[in-house]
Amino acid sequence: MKTIKLSIILLLLLGAFSCKKTDNSATSSVSTDQAADIAAGSLAANSYGLTSISDNIASNAQVVASINTGSPSVNSVGTSDHQACGTTRVDSASNSGTNGAVTSSYFFKFSRTLSCDANNQPDSLANNLIYHGNFDGPNLTSSNSGSAIFTISNLSPTALSYLINGDYKRAGSFQFKTGDKLSGQSNVDIVVTNLTLSKPSRKILSGNATIAVTGSSSKNGAFTYTGTLVFNGDGTATLTINGGAVYTVDLSTGARTKH
Length: 259
Fold this sequence. Notes:
By secondary structure, this protein is α+β, with helices and mostly antiparallel strands. The chain has one domain. The chain contains 3 helices and 11 strands; from the N terminus they run αααβββββββββββ. The chain has an 11-stranded antiparallel beta sheet. A hairpin with a 5-residue loop joins strand 2 (102-116) and strand 3. The longest helix has 25 residues, at 2-26.
């Protein structure tokens, strides 16, 4: 009988130790909600994320392709805006200010190579860019830098929408302002497939992407999350993390809602 009682006590102790160990491991990384916030900051227009960059790329393509109805051809030979087929142009832009509850400041440098069709009309633009800056929002602040390689196609005036494909990266520091106020370093990698933007408004209509959010926190060590993005055409994207947690992200403000 004593042997049985001792065995039961040992099992209970092992169970308690196991539970304690599991609880500790549950706090060994950034939470899925926090990973979603980092992802949202890399997407939103007001933190100059992927949404803002895709709009810049489409705006430039709009000028090069000269699709503005009723206006002179801004890409005509002899104009200052003309870019010859097969050539590369380099430009830069600085953006800063407050949009809603988010204050941000970023610098971008673009390299854009124009490809033309058999009739020497603009067909696609290969965009390589690097950037750095910071944003400060109600829940999260971040200083970061990154790069993107995006090709925008369907520059022909007869095409009804633009298509963007490529890879967007962002890396830097983060500091949460709420909850456990966790800080650390993060890396975001978004691979975009057929991001479709309307002409001429450049509204995001549809598209898909894979996303990886990795890094380390000051308290709890390394973290890794992977997921998918579906661009819904209504100013939002659906973010699914690790195949389970689902969020709706506002592409303008970066606000996210968990389902």
